[in-house]
């Protein structure tokens, strides 16, 4: 039970770190029209073969844990791959990650909420702890449920906190 939670949170941290590496504030301009054509051609090829897609930017977010608004700084990254939508919000060390099934009625696979008041909180489907559901409206996702964590001051008693994540994926 605790192992699944640790694995889920570790996986969420890896997703956050990996996806935040995909985001950048750098603006690049093309130096020639031939590079624009090759980029356009590569984009068309990637779309035609249904490759994984990712978008990074400053999507709208609101995160509430145990009734308190959480300040999450950084960008929003949404990547679709293998039938899942991976959402990373914020910076690698302090961010929030979620993995949902792709489609109009997504199900929640995992959520990593990071460290909240000394307790690392998360949810993993099938772990037998907590619960989570998701709703989708266009590019906006609302994920809510109960996350579980371990307070190291009292490790024998699991901590359960309600959470809500509202995030709009960038284009």
UniProtKB/TrEMBL annotation:
Annotated segments matching region Disordered: 21-59
Coiled coil regions in record: none
Membrane spanning residue stretches: none
Annotated keywords: Cell membrane, Lipoprotein, Membrane, Palmitate, Signal
Family annotation (InterPro entries): LpqH
A single GO cellular-component term on record: membrane
Pfam family, one: Myco_19_kDa
Segments of skewed composition (Low complexity): 30-59
Signal peptide limits: none
Name of the protein this chain belongs to: Lipoprotein LpqH
Native species: Mycolicibacterium fluoranthenivorans
């Amino acid at each position: 039970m605790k192992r699944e939670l640790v694995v889920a949170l570790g996986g969420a941290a890896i997703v956050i770190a990996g996806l935040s590496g995909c985001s950048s504030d750098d603006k690049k301009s093309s130096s020639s029209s031939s590079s624009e054509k090759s980029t356009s051609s590569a984009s068309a090829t990637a779309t035609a073969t249904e490759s994984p897609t990712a978008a990074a930017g400053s999507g709208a977010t609101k995160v509430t844990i145990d009734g308190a608004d959480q300040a999450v700084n950084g960008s929003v990254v949404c990547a679709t791959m293998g039938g899942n939508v991976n959402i990373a919000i914020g910076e690698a060390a302090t961010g929030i990650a979620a993995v949902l099934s792709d489609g109009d009625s997504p199900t929640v696979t995992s959520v990593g909420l990071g460290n909240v008041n000394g307790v690392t909180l998360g949810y993993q489907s099938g772990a037998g702890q907590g619960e989570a559901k998701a709703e989708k409206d266009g590019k906006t996702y609302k994920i809510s449920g109960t996350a579980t964590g371990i307070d190291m001051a009292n490790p024998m008693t699991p901590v359960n906190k309600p959470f809500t994540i509202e995030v709009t994926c960038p284009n």
